[in-house]
Amino acid sequence: MWIDTHCHLDASEFDADREHVATAARGAGVGRIVIPAIGRQNFATVRELAHRFEGGAYALGIHPLFTPSAQDGDLELLRAEIEASLDDPRFVGIGEIGLDYFIDGLDDARQQFFYNGQLEIAREFDLPVICHVRKSQDQVIKGLRRHQIHRGIAHAFNGSFQQAQAYIDQGMHLGFGGNLTFERARQIRRLAEQLPFDALVVETDAPDIPPSWIYKQRNSPEQIPGIGAGLAQLRGMAVDETALGTTANALAALPRLALSSA
Ligand SMILES: [Zn+2]
């Protein structure tokens, strides 16, 4: 069994065939799909989707790219939604949160306000975080340190070995997806090949970041075994061993995944 630790199954790209996409993933051996939220506008949707499909799971959070439309009160709403979700075995953590210094025009103080506010909530409820880390490796880990967060995933990780080690030392896992299937993605492939295996989880970020064999097409969670096979090849591991290992790693990163069955 594989786990897709990051899939935006609620995205409009899946409106026409969401049921089919979830069934195909399951048929391909993807037993769990983690659906992170992006803001108050999709909290109910990701929860509903996680319950609609076998193996579904969800996280609640305010994504850095959606902070321009978020209001201060959304933090209090998120806190209440999280408190109400603690009894829900399909709820696995806080996400997608983080900082993005790649996209122009985002207000840094606004991003920081929501990121830090959500880290406080993670600390309060002792929940793991799923982090968006784009050109913000040092700033995101600074927040994790300050709020003493020791569990979660730095999703679509793309940094230096030194930065990767800092996340691992903090107790975080690193998410790898379609990028590792491109020969030209040398740094990501080096990281996936050489970092301690225990630190790695696989993800699609579907509908984004398609692997090489569906370049520029819609990505979907059924691609996880292919991405996992790419990881296995880089590491010189058997594919089965890679599936078992990354599944165990995902459970370590998001322990509440063990509360509901696949
Ligand atoms: Zn995402």
UniProtKB/TrEMBL annotation:
What Pfam families does the entry give?
TatD_DNase
Q: Where does a divalent metal cation 2 bind?
A: 132, 155
Binding residues for a divalent metal cation 1, per the UniProt record?
6, 8, 96, 205
GO MF, one annotated term: hydrolase activity, acting on ester bonds
Q: Metal-binding as a keyword?
A: yes
Question: What protein family does this chain belong to?
Answer: Belongs to the metallo-dependent hydrolases superfamily. TatD-type hydrolase family.
Task: Specify the protein name.
Answer: TatD-related deoxyribonuclease
| Organism annotation | Paraburkholderia graminis (strain ATCC 700544 / DSM 17151 / LMG 18924 / NCIMB 13744 / C4D1M)
Q: Which UniProt keywords apply?
A: Hydrolase, Metal-binding
Keyword Metal-binding assigned to the entry: answer is yes
